[in-house]
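Summary of Year 1 activities. Much of the first year was spent building the evaluation harness for sequence design. The harness presents a backbone, in tokenized form, and records the residue chosen at every position. We chose the following record to illustrate the format because it has been used consistently in internal testing since the harness was completed.
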């Protein structure tokens, strides 16, 4: 993880650090974290979310840090906080400063993403 942090410019480092602290505090111990495609990826039964700074190649992020939800299309998000982009599944929010981060809204989205993840376990166990 220290190699990952070493790749980031100061602004992205601050945004990334805040997002990772929020995610790690919100996800239960049953969830895991790993580096995939050179970015932090969080998972339970399936993927939950990822954090992709613009300075890491192949993310399609021009500026800032992307917080993506793997199954964002299954989240309610009634206020339309997350962007849909061209991806049918992953919904995301790009932050250009740490001040833009809405802690409570991200916590609420993570809670809903965890419920979606729990449903995957039930589906997997039933063989559907």
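For this record, the design step produced the sequence shown next.
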């Amino acid at each position: 993880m220290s190699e990952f942090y070493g790749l980031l410019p100061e602004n992205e480092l601050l945004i990334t650090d805040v997002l990772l602290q929020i995610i790690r505090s919100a996800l239960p111990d049953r969830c895991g974290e790993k580096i995939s495609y050179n970015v932090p990826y969080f998972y339970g039964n399936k993927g939950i979310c990822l954090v992709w700074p613009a300075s890491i190649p192949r993310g399609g992020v021009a500026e800032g840090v992307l917080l993506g939800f793997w199954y964002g299309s299954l989240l309610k998000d009634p206020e339309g906080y997350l962007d849909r982009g061209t991806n049918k599944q992953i919904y995301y929010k790009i932050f250009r400063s740490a001040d833009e981060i809405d802690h409570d809204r991200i916590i609420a989205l993570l809670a809903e993403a965890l419920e979606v993840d729990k449903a995957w376990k039930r589906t997997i166990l039933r063989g559907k």
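The longest helix spans residues 103-126. Quantitative recovery figures across the full test set are reported in Table 2.
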